[in-house]
Specification:
With 220 residues, the protein is an alpha/beta fold. It has eleven helices and six strands.
């Protein structure tokens, strides 16, 4: 049986190129679905039987780490590989603490991506050789890092919906655009923004953006 893969990346050229390369260079992997952002990935992935998700870390609405957390909450058996241009230890740690099984740099060759998909589909871990020295297993059990992950997931006690809206605000969307994107009425969106400001003790939208960037909530 072929390994069923779902791809999510906000750059169509990258996503389509990866799709073509994977299927052209392997006969045991099939791309069964695609999405351009994390929220769409969550909404559409359920329509497919998926063995491995390959997610860009820097996606609009929900980044790859947030998407991973929600996928695993919905189905703890989900296998996820993160694709990223970031090789910093803190981001790699957050990715694995969110539940991913693989972390690849975007400079990786297609053969490495294919190898990662095969390994992760078997429940194994895979890390790009360039960052394997981070000793992934050394931080998985640390309670302090688990606490850091909780803060990354929903900072300052925000609800998941408020977390989404804060990220969209930081990405420059207006309240009207956010309401349309999330299928909310304008007044409801305004109430959410008011609650976010109250909980964070922030009184200007520009300060909300600064907070989101500082806390890693805005697009990475």
């Amino acid at each position: 049986m072929r390994i069923r893969v779902f791809l999510a990346d906000d750059h169509p050229v990258v996503r389509e190129g990866l799709h073509f390369a994977i299927e052209a260079k392997s006969n045991d992997i099939q791309v069964v679905g695609e999405a351009s952002d994390g929220l769409t990935a969550l909404e559409t992935a359920g329509n497919h039987s998926v063995d491995v998700y390959v997610l860009d870390i820097s996606m609009p609405v929900l980044n790859g780490i947030e998407t991973t957390q929600r996928l695993i909450k919905k189905n703890p058996q989900s296998k996820v590989i993160i694709l990223s241009v970031h090789d910093s230890r803190s981001i790699v740690e957050k990715a694995f603490l969110s539940g991913v099984h693989g972390y690849l740099l975007k400079e990786s060759a297609t053969t490495e991506v294919i190898e990662a998909i095969r390994e992760v589909s078997k429940g194994r871990y895979f890390v790009s050789p360039a960052i394997s020295g981070f000793l992934v297993h050394g931080f998985l059990g640390r309670q302090s890092n688990k606490q850091s992950l909780d803060a990354f997931r929903i900072p300052a006690g925000l609800t998941p919906r408020e977390r989404e809206i804060l990220e969209l605000i930081a990405e420059g969307l207006t309240v009207k655009e956010i309401a349309s994107k999330l299928n909310l009425c304008l007044n409801t969106t305004l109430v959410h923004r008011k609650n976010i400001m109250r909980k964070l003790d922030i009184h200007k939208q520009t300060d909300l953006v600064r907070y989101a960037i500082k806390e890693g909530i805005a697009k990475l």
